[in-house]
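Throughout this chapter, every protein is written as a compact record of paired, labelled lines. The reader may check this reading against the record printed directly beneath this paragraph:
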Amino acid sequence: MRRTVRIGLLATIIVLATVILLAIELFSSPPLTPYTELTLPASEQDSGLQAQWFGVSTLTIGDGETTVMIDGFFSRPSWLSLLFMPLSPDLARIDAALALGQVDKADALFVAHSHHDHAMDSAVVAGTLGARLMGSESTANIGRGGGLGEDQIRVIQHGDILNLGQFEIRIFETPHSPDPVTPGTIDQPLTPPARLADYRLGENYSFLLNHPQGRILIVPSAHYVPGLFQEVQADVVFLSIGLLGKQPGDFIRSYWKETVQATAAQLVIPIHWDDFSRPLDQPLQALPYLLDDMEASMTQLMELAQTDGVAIRLMPLAVPVQLTTPEAP
């Protein structure tokens, strides 16, 4: 009798899982055709301040001498893997992405928070690029579990100011987008393979990169603290819009006010909009409708940008884009 109940329960779980996966596929976002004209052109020169984007909120920003990377997430496991399998960094995908972007070194790897889509690959990427891993204590425990020594890890906190080459990097603790799935902290070294639920949030950070050739604010998670950036000036804001399409209009307008209007930025580049379960050798798509509504968020953001006279553009994948602005100090 008990064996029959167990078999029935297992069958029910399998059916429910299949339904969930089918729903994700059925409600996937359409191709990004309406926004292709917003894509920034590739840089035509090798000098100056440049950025590369590798999906989600993974970025490199460099000036030819110093390279700062954000998050460094390239493995992008499937929804099936995320829901049912232990996760490990995909070394082949990491190597392929770095080769695609011709990235062979970085001076620092700053991690926004410790969910898998930001931090899962951080130890491998920091080790591969010779970068120092910068993040919360939770992120540090991912680094430790991934084999990094303490000399390659630095725990950061709100208010820190770090200098790397000509970059001055200021750290701001900001909230995760509302209702994070796996809150909490990682309190001991996390060695893969690990479950999705093991990649708990920890603290979440935004980063201001001040450079003689430009001021760049990176907001990797779509939320805000009223007044936090009141004294901050930025030329460019990399603005997370992940899950923003499910928020009410008042939230979106406040988010814009506290990140873009507050800093007087003239260029906004949406990030963290793509479906991070799709490998980078496949065409990018927005997150499934079950999770987000990119069309809703982009429509409102473009209206706000037009009202404020702000340019809103998307990044090409893995291609260097010039970020130097004439107004930069």
Summary: DSSP finds eight helices and 14 strands in the chain. Residues 325-329 have pLDDT under 50 and may be disordered. The two ends are 76 Å apart (CA to CA).
